[in-house]
UniProtKB/TrEMBL annotation:
Name of the protein described by the UniProt record: Indoleacetamide hydrolase
The UniProt record lists the keyword Hydrolase: yes
Pfam families: Amidase
SUPFAM superfamilies with a match to the protein in the record: Amidase signature (AS) enzymes
Gene encoding the protein: iaaH
PROSITE patterns recorded: AMIDASES
Alphabetized GO MF terms: hydrolase activity
Domain Amidase, residue spans: 29-452
Gene3D superfamilies tied to this protein: Amidase signature (AS) domain
Amino acid sequence: MVESKGMPLTIESLKTAFKSGDLTCEAYVNTVIERAENLKHLNALISVDWEQLRLAAKAVDESGGAGDALNGIPICFKDNIQTGVLPASAATKALAGKRTCASEVATRLMGQGALVGGMGNMHELAFGITTNNGYSGASKNPWNEHRIPGGSSGGVAAAVAAGIMPAGIGTDTGGSVRLPAALCGIVGFRPSVGRYPLTGMVPVSHTRDTAGPMANTVRDCRILDRIMADKHDVSIDKTKEVSSIRLGVPRAYFYDNLDHDVAWLTEKALNTLLDMGVTLIDADIPNVGELNEGCSFPIALYEFMQNLPEYLSANVPDVSVKDIADNTLSPDVSGLMASLLSDGAMPTSVYREAIDVVRPQLQNAYKEYFDKHGVDAVIFPTTALPAAPIGDDETVELNGERLPTFSTFIHNTDPASNAGIPGISMPIGLTRDGLPVGIEIDGPYGSDEQLLAIAEALEAVFAFQQRA
């Protein structure tokens, strides 16, 4: 693992250092740039403009406002989030160099003084979890450079975990914020669907897509969430009393076939919570796997073929879906695009069943679970296994068996995505091979502030050390 060299790596610590005069924004940005260049081999960033960033930092210092709100804080944006400052290509060739107006999420953050530090590499078009991209190259996990950082927001996770950027913004359709956060030992938050606006982001599915903050601490995610949700009147001073927290433990489905180290670290974390007074309720969510399977791909693939043409027409009208498909260079994504174009999109009847019948059943299963058991959230390992070797794009080894990479990694993160409820992953420890393991809590729809407060309380219990 790369060392932090004493750099302030949280938004909170940077704000304090800026306000006290112990650090100027320009000096910090110069350190960020030096670190990014020294760690260029991680391939975390797909595009940067260091001169522009230096000028922006100098302007912040000259204004005297460094440390106010997000003033002077550089943030890494996933390459499918428009900033208006750097191109947003979704890490695919046909959209390379396309600089469009800023997304609403980026506008809110920049409106509070955030600087665009760079664009994070990602799995091409956000259709994968390895960030092994045939166009932009593979991003590497800072804890082990032969391993994936996860995806699809893998570049953002790698940049934050490596200490290049203090925080970043990813997108999450089926786990693309929480999954790389878990594999890279940082915090990743997916909000309730609709909490943040979707405008100005290269889409997969309007039902499932959302932006999400990624940082070294839950507190930093809370700071970013408040701005991204335009909730400036929401206090983030309070956390939950640990002894008042009630968590459901849905062992069926979410605890199936776990890697040995993941299982051991998860049980250790649960026992620690019990010792600290957290109430754990062993209870399963009925039919969660079957309901999730019935709506996951039908919704995503159908809506992608509706939403992408709409996005292109509004933002890059000179590029067609066929242009993107013809220039997709990652074998897994290229095959998917070819299939969608040749065979047609998901049948409307299948989509309507998924969106009108199965998804509401999944949402109701979660609601009844929370109501029946009186729990604040459910808790489970974010992923069944730690970061896989780079190149394991089709299958991955888990407990002596080769399994499909994509479905194995998103197994635990996908249900909450389809239900539209909030979830957050935080690190709990390292495997015997020194790879991070994350644990996730998901709460009822709209419980975002409470879930973040619970996560901050649990984070203090877990006391994970981000950097060796």
